[in-house]
């Protein structure tokens, strides 16, 4: 009974470690236990039940994708399709085109949620807790499928937020400036009663569920060897000495001598004891010294390889039978198979183990395993009890419903045609203007913040200041400024407007503008911006830096086995034209194999350089070579073969490099004398 408990303990601990290492958080969703519910409005929703309790989490249906609405209570959709034209021909200085800008979110309405909760409760009394935890894909998780918007000629300026919102109410943004042809084509797909428009939206996610992965049983048929253990031991020796039959007689004599010693010191031996003696004899005849020998007070040493051979031999003789069924292919199941061998070793003891779960305890306080004696994999059987105890009854151990966490992909796709139908008659959302119309003697100059700017407010950016001027042929020139900070962005959205009073001005020149960003620490960028030609269609304000979510991952077991306690990702990149440094540490003892941290690099910089700095228990800091990364924000802490093999020349080089590590300034700035990026200018370029 107690040995069944220790196997159960081993397997439960293995499964628990797999479960925790998978990154699963609060939701433990069963892949096999699902519900399909049709709401009163016809929307079909799939729900997953948790592995414990009666709670459900739902996958948001594609129909829940919708335009965001302004927070001012007006229920106005955040959608703008503005077509503009002039009465002049393009070759005479006229302009034609359009602006498309909208915000998208997903989520069920309160009415739909209430309907869903009631239907799930009616089915089995279940509780709907919320949506499934969705993880955005590491790449471009928010995709636009459009022949017009993705064409550089039709849409010379096109941006998206790039990342699909992971929570209901989170927003994704699309903005584009279209030329004349692009505006006409897109407008036609919106307004000509086509089945779909040219713009489709795809949000790519993944989520984690627990899948029933395997089941099996193991049988220990001890009674098969009780009366034929000597014959079976002889078979084992002959198998091991298959290529040397001339040594069989010598082996049999050694076996009988060892049996006599066991009888003298311990009394009657056991069937398992006979096989252990056979294993030792075969090792000695073959010349395998790793198995050790025997000592006084009856001590007996057997190598791990020999123990595994005995285990496999008993399987061939059907003393041990293992039936195993896997429903998915997963390397993590290998550790569960290995647990059966660990139980086989513990079958030689009569140690008692307490139950696995006691109140809120998650670990077994069992006695120390006295069988495995040293780090070289040699097992010591030092008591007569271990060598003579009889296993007279068969034993069957069954394992069912072994579950593993598995990631599943999920995509929500919608077409903008249905959304456009909701706003096409709303003048706040869809409009056309003639820039020559006398009505527009007051012209609006629109500035639209790129969505990334919002993410940078209060992190890297205080505000952006815009100054506009327009030269008049009569009267004073027009001059006005605009400052946008986090509060203004939150309260008024992405679009901000300055109004230009045309008056009697007949100067055909466009207005001019310049933008300057205030950065954390009081720095202004650029320090002295120049004026640029504006566009009556609007200006998109794009910050000079862009965010990168860096993912740094390592194999903690490998690092620990090599004596490495920490791996630090040391990064160098351009920010605001200067070389800066960021260090991302990953510590073995914290048991987190993946660390994420956001850095901000110059927008026109294609990448960064990095190196690994490894902290060794005895060797100190080990600094590897610098490498460049282009358009890739994932770094794996690959341990060089030379370090694994302890190449002395290589070790000397990286130890010396580790002594020269300089600490960056509080804002990441570095001493120019320790610059690295100049060496990689052919790869990542240099700032203007």
Question: Outline of this structure?
Answer:
This protein has 688 residues and is an alpha+beta fold. The protein is 25% helix and 35% strand. Strands 4, 5, 6, 10, 11 and 18 form a 6-stranded mixed β-sheet that branches.
Give the tags:
688 residues, alpha+beta, Immunoglobulin-like, 6-stranded mixed beta sheet, 16 helices, elongated, disordered N terminus
DSSP helix fraction: 25-40%
CATH topology of the domain at 545-684, anyone?
Immunoglobulin-like
Mean pLDDT: 77
SS elements, strand count: 34
Structural class: alpha+beta
Gyration radius, in Å: 36 Å
Distance between the termini: 75 Å
Strand fraction band? 25-35%
The CATH architecture of the domain at 545-684 comes to Sandwich
Based on CA inertia axes, which overall geometry fits? elongated
Spans with pLDDT under 50 lasting ≥5 residues? 1-25, 290-298, 349-371
| Name of the level-1 CATH class of the domain at 545-684 | Mainly Beta
């Amino acid at each position: 009974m107690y040995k069944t408990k220790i196997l159960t303990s081993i397997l439960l601990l293995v499964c628990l470690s797999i479960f925790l290492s998978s990154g699963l958080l609060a939701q433990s969703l069963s892949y096999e236990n699902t519900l399909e519910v049709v709401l009163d409005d016809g929307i079909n929703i799939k729900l997953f039940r948790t592995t414990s309790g009666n709670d459900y989490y739902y996958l948001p249906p594609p129909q829940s994708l919708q335009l965001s609405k302004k927070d001012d209570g007006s229920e106005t959709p955040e959608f703008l399709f503005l077509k503009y034209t002039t009465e002049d021909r393009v070759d005479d200085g006229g302009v034609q085109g359009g602006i498309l800008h909208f915000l998208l979110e997903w989520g069920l309405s309160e009415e739909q949620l209430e309907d869903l909760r009631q239907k799930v409760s009616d089915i089995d009394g279940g509780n709907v807790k919320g949506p499934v935890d969705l993880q955005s894909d590491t790449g471009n998780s928010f995709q636009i499928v459009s022949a017009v918007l993705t064409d550089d000629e039709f849409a010379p300026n096109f941006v998206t937020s790039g990342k699909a919102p992971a929570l209901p109410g989170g927003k994704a943004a699309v903005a584009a400036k279209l030329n004349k042809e692009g505006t006409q084509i897109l407008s036609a797909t919106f307004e000509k009663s086509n089945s779909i428009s040219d713009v489709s939206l795809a949000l790519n996610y993944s989520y984690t569920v627990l899948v029933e992965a395997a089941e099996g049983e193991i049988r220990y048929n001890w009674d098969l060897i009780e009366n034929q253990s000597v014959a079976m031991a002889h078979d084992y020796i002959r198998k091991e000495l298959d290529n040397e039959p001339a040594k069989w007689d010598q082996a049999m004599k050694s076996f009988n001598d060892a049996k006599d010693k066991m009888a003298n010191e311990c009394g009657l031996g056991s069937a398992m004891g006979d096989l252990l003696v056979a294993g030792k004899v075969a090792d000695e005849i073959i010349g395998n010294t790793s198995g050790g020998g025997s000592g006084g007070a009856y001590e007996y040493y057997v190598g791990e390889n020999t123990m595994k051979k005995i285990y496999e031999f008993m399987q061939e003789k059907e003393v041990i039978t293992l039936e195993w069924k896997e429903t998915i292919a997963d390397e993590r199941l290998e550790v569960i198979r290995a647990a059966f061998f660990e139980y086989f070793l513990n079958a030689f003891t009569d140690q008692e183990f307490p139950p696995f779960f006691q109140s809120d305890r998650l670990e077994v306080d069992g006695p120390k395993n006295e069988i495995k004696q040293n780090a070289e994999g040699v097992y010591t059987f030092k008591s007569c009890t271990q060598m003579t105890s009889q296993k007279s009854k068969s034993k069957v151990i069954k394992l069912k419903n072994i579950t593993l966490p598995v990631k599943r992909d999920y995509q929500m796709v919608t077409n903008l045609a249905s959304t456009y139908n909701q706003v096409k008659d709303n003048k706040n959302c869809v409009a056309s203007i003639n820039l020559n119309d006398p009505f527009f003697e007051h012209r609006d100059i629109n500035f639209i913040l790129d969505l990334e700017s919002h993410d940078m407010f209060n992190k890297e950016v205080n505000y952006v200041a815009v100054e506009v001027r327009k030269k008049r042929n009569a009267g004073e020139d027009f001059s006005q400024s605009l400052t946008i900070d986090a509060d203004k962005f939150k309260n008024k959205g992405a679009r901000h407007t300055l109004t230009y009073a045309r008056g009697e001005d007949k100067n055909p020149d466009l207005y001019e503008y310049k933008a300057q960003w205030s950065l954390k620490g009081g720095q202004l960028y650029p320090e002295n911006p120049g004026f640029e030609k504006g566009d009556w269609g609007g200006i998109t304000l794009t910050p000079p830096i862009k965010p990168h979510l860096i993912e740094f991952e390592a194999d903690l077991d490998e690092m620990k086995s090599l004596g490495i306690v920490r791996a630090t990702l040391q990064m160098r990149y351009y920010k605001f034209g200067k070389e800066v440094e960021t260090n991302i540490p990953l510590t073995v003892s914290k048991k987190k194999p993946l660390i994420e941290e956001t850095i901000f690099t110059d927008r026109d910089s294609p990448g960064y350089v990095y190196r690994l700095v490894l902290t060794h228990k005895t060797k100190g800091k080990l600094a590897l070579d610098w490498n460049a990364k282009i358009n890739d924000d994932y770094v794996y802490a690959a341990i060089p073969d030379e370090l694994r093999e302890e190449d002395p020349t290589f070790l000397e080089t990286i130890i010396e490099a580790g002594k020269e590590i300089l600490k960056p300034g509080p804002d990441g700035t570095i001493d120019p004398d320790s610059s690295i990026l100049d060496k990689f200018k052919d790869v990542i370029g240099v700032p203007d």
